[in-house]
Amino acid sequence: MSSNHFFTRKLLLVRHGLTDWNNIHKFQGRTDIPLNNAGLEQAEKTARRIEKWQVDAVYTSPLSRALQTADIIAARFQKKPVVLDDLTEVNFGTWEGLLFREQLEKNNESLLKWIADPFFYTPPGGEEWDAISQRIERAVSAVMGSEHRHIVIVSHGGIIRALLVALLGLDPHTVWKIKFANCSLTGIDIKEYETSLAFANDTMHLREPYAGECLPVW
Prior knowledge:
There is one protein chain. With 218 residues, the protein is α/β, with parallel strands linked by helices. It has a single domain, classed as Phosphoglycerate mutase-like (Rossmann fold). It is built from seven helices and six strands, in the order βααβαβαααβαββ. A six-stranded mixed β-sheet has the order 3-2-4-1-5-6. A hairpin with a 3-residue loop joins β5 and β6 (195-202). α2 packs parallel to α3 and α6 packs across α7. The relative contact order is 0.21. Mean pLDDT is 93; it is low at 1-5.
């Protein structure tokens, strides 16, 4: 019997391209910062990387840095991204717009606690894990409720980690130890009897030189 008999879906998780705030390590969260020129170039390279992969649908966060990335990817497949509000980045409360390094140099006790356990130490005025978890479950239900088999999800670092918790049962206390660079690719295989991580934080398409012909997705 072919293993394809048990195949259900492949999810390709894409973090948005670079922004000016990423460059200087500012907390972005819900603040709507667009891609910079380097981020737009990253999105183009990402679209070129996956253009030979079958894409049935592209889902995205509504924040412009994710939506711009998704628009560039979806255009390669003559599709329009589906916006899911539940894929919006985690709300970092009063930390949004602050420089990570400055807060670290101030020996900010709240920041040190957050670094140790980001989903379970909430920034002042920020979003708690229960709220994040609930909306990620809604997003997963919306995606899995479709008939699409090959799906791109464009979102944010915090949300991609939350998706791994929901899809793979990873420990939310430790999932922040997985790095997700801007415009990195992470693959999830979903079969009838198991869900597995195929690869994570793939950025080969962003490295130079890259001709674009020799790097399959999976």
